[in-house]
Design goal:
740 residues, alpha/beta, nine-stranded mixed beta sheet, 24 helices, 36% helix
Length: 740
């Protein structure tokens, strides 16, 4: 399918051929008929993307501070790679569209294939021929009198409605609207339909004239004349409310709003404007300045948008969904008319012309720019070939298929795979076509896809890298093993003991397939030297791992219980690392957590571990620290020696009064490349896996029981041998119960 993408580094815009998006749970697949280019938002995005690195830094000083913090902690090379990885991702443009439902995801019961819908949301309702839309980011087009191109304005209409509600406008109010672009025109019409008097202002006389034509009581294009007009039309009192729908870095619109508002009026900024407010005016009138956030309540709430958890109407009357529905009702009742606002209709094939218009690269005036799409009954392709195959696969060659191409995969894992060499990159699959295509082109894959079956069915692929959301790992590992392929799964391996049992049985049934988990830290050069230093210790080790993990908001996906939380998602790394250093499996674990004040998500923890050889380890995992301090510090004591590893950049080893110190100033090596070198060597030579499957199970089981210990408040025994035996016994009983 065709989709409009922007290069975040250069600002270049292109119409790309990408696989259609994967249909996710609680979503519908929509064949898009029309989408609207938001001139203000998309022009601002385009201008920012086209800036150089220094200009981007000046525009976002908050991000620069984060970069310097990372630089001090992780080194120049690691920070440089992280920054460029972020800038290397394609931006999917657009957030307001309409079309026909062609697919229903799991959990959707009130939408049918064939229904016409309006769609919302950056990252969802993009300028593309097909879109995967969460249920609460769509609204049904119930009236046959509303066309697709009219309904495509619904998201922008919801923005206008939420701005009006934020301004607490009442029936009969006189409302000043500053900025009569696309959003201002919609705001003006909705206000008129709500029984308000509208006085509009825009520096562009054509836009001022159009607003007057569409029902505004009065408009003008001169700031002083606008002040006079608002005074005349309100008998000197001033406007009851002011809605700012302009898009400019200047603070003139905010201060003009203060000048035309009555005492104790509400000034609401809907557009992005400068906010150097002249305090005197706002103080003397005791004005209430507000900023309207997007389409309404529910926006930026992942539980609402991604999981479909609606707010009760008795408590939240107007959500972003209900604002869209209200706007569609206004269209159906002919209370507003968007057709005069549409200045251009451009097929997606020629979409670059739309951005020339909104960026002022042509002399042609533009207001409402609609992207149109050819409608057909054919379903979209979920695979796009990038380059031709290399012919007959070499015997013994590693031919890799990748499922999941997020920031970590493209910024860390795949660069490590490339550095190893000798691995043929076959196909890459991820949920969105834009990311899939980008990863394929960047790393040289032969094809990209949004359906994991394309990877699993590919007989030439003999190894699968899984780097998806944690909740998908177990199912995808089992599917890959069932297809007879070697598996590398980025941690965690699974989220429950039942899933771990299923994986044990799947691995036993395909013994020729290797299973590897991304426990990279044990392969780091400094970690290897630390391990070697203690090989002479003929006694158990005492180990402490302090992790200054940092605060993560409760609504971040890593905190979602469905994704396992931070114990399963990250603490597993440190349980594995201590297992590696101890040289024995965990046999006992106990977790304690600080009382949760509501700010944290039970992610301030201490975990005690006992190992089969008597070694003991403690993990202190803190979300309540400061990022300026190092993230990871490991201290090991035993045999009259001490080893200290600091953030994989500093290693201190002491024995018999002699001290060795090593420091890496430029980079931080956490072992990703060495891990892949070891895994690739094992696959090529048919040798044992770099981490035995039994040890992977032991670490995974200990991690699961560390989380269980946190819940029950008691220590947990970790008997890996018994677990393996029970899992295999259960599989044997299941096979024995099948009819002959």
């Amino acid at each position: 399918m065709k989709q409009i993408l922007q290069d975040a580094r250069t600002g270049e815009i292109a119409v790309a051929e990408v696989p259609a998006p994967q249909l996710l749970a609680r979503c519908v697949l929509v064949r898009v008929a029309a989408s609207v280019v938001s001139a203000g938002t998309e022009r601002a995005s385009s201008e920012f993307a086209s800036k150089g690195l220094v200009q981007k830094a000046k525009a976002r000083p908050d991000l620069v501070r984060d970069v310097f913090t990372k630089l001090r902690r992780d080194g120049i090379a690691s920070t440089w790679n992280a920054v460029h990885s972020r800038l290397d991702q394609p931006l999917a443009l657009g957030y307001s569209s309409a079309g026909t439902v062609v697919g229903i995801g799991e959990g959707i019961t009130d939408v049918l294939v064939g229904e016409r819908v309006a769609c919302a949301g950056a990252g969802h309702a993009n300028h593309a021929e097909f879109a995967c839309i969460p249920r609460l980011l769509l609204a049904k087009i119930d009236s046959a009198d509303v066309s697709f191109e009219e309904a495509a304005f619904a998201t922008l209409g919801a923005v206008a409605l939420h701005g009006i509600r934020t301004a607490e406008v009442k029936l009969g109010d006189t409302v000043a609207v500053i900025g009569l672009g696309l959003l201002g025109q919609l705001t003006s019409q909705v206000l008129r339909a709500a029984g308000c008097r509208v006085i509009g202002f825009d520096l562009n006389p054509r836009r001022a004239a159009l607003a007057l034509q569409l029902g505004a009581e009065a408009t003008c294009d001169n700031p002083q004349a606008f002040r006079d007009l608002c005074s005349q039309r309100t008998c000197g009192r001033g406007a009851d409310a002011v809605v700012i729908a302009a898009e400019t870095a200047s603070s003139d619109p905010v201060n003009l709003a203060g000048a035309v508002a009555r005492e104790r009026a509400i000034v609401c900024a809907v557009g992005t404007v400068g906010m150097e407010i002249q305090r005197r005016v706002f103080f003397e009138k005791e004005l209430d300045f507000r900023i309207s956030r997007s389409y309404g309540p529910g926006r930026y709430d992942s539980a609402f948008e991604q999981k479909g958890l609606d707010y009760p109407i008795g408590y939240v009357r107007w959500t972003e969904t209900r604002n869209m529905e209200a706007f569609l009702a206004l269209l159906a009742g002919a209370k507003i008319d968007v057709r005069p606002i549409i200045s251009h209709r451009i097929p997606i094939e020629n979409a670059l012309a739309a951005y020339d218009l909104i960026n002022g690269k042509t002399s042609e005036a533009a207001l409402g720019v609609v992207i149109t799409y050819l409608q057909s009954d054919s379903m979209p392709a979920k695979r796009v070939n990038i380059r031709s195959e290399s012919g007959v696969a070499t015997v013994g060659a590693i031919r890799l298929g990748v499922i999941g191409a997020g920031t970590f995969a493209t910024g860390t894992l795949l660069p490590a795979v490339q550095q190893v060499g000798g691995i043929e990159l076959a196909g890459v699959c991820t949920a969105t076509g834009a990311r899939a295509r980008h990863a394929a082109e960047k790393f040289g894959f032969q094809y990209c896809a949004t359906d994991e079956e394309e990877i699993l069915r590919d007989e030439r692929v003999n190894t699968v890298l899984i780097a998806t959301r944690h909740s998908l790992h177990a199912r995808q590992v089992i599917a890959a093993l069932g297809a007879g392929k070697h598996v590398y799964c980025e941690k965690p391996l699974c989220l429950t003991e039942d899933e771990l049992s299923d994986i044990v049985r799947a691995a036993r049934q395909t013994e020729r397939a290797a299973v590897m988990v991304g426990f990279n830290r044990r392969f780091a050069p400094m970690a290897q030297r630390l391990k070697e230093f203690f090989t002479a210790a003929q006694e158990p080790l005492l180990m402490h791992c302090r992790v200054n993990a940092g605060f993560v908001k409760a609504d971040h996906w890593t905190q979602d219980p469905e994704e396992g939380g931070r114990i399963l998602g990250e603490v597993c790394h440190f349980i594995d690392f201590l297992t590696f250093l101890a040289g024995a499996w965990p046999v006992w674990v106990q977790t304690h957590a600080l009382a949760n004040s509501g700010l944290y998500s039970d992610d301030n923890l201490t975990i005690q571990l006992q190992f089969a050889n008597g070694s003991q380890g403690t993990i202190t995992y803190a979300a309540n620290g400061d990022k300026a301090c190092s993230k990871e510090r490991v201290e090991v004591f035993g045999g009259g020696a001490v080893g200290v590893l600091e953030d994989f950049r500093e290693l201190e080893l002491s024995r018999a009064g002699r001290r060795q110190f090593e420091r890496s100033r430029l980079t931080q090596d956490k072992g990703h490349r060495a891990e892949w070198e070891a895994f690739a060597k094992a696959l090529r030579e048919g040798g044992p896996s770099p981490i035995s499957f039994e040890e992977i199970v032991a670490v995974s089981l200990a991690t699961l029981r560390a989380r269980a210990s946190r819940r029950v408040g008691e220590p947990m025994v970790v008997d890996t041998d018994a677990f393996l035996a029970a899992a295999l016994s259960q599989g044997n009983r299941a096979q024995g119960s099948q009819p002959a």
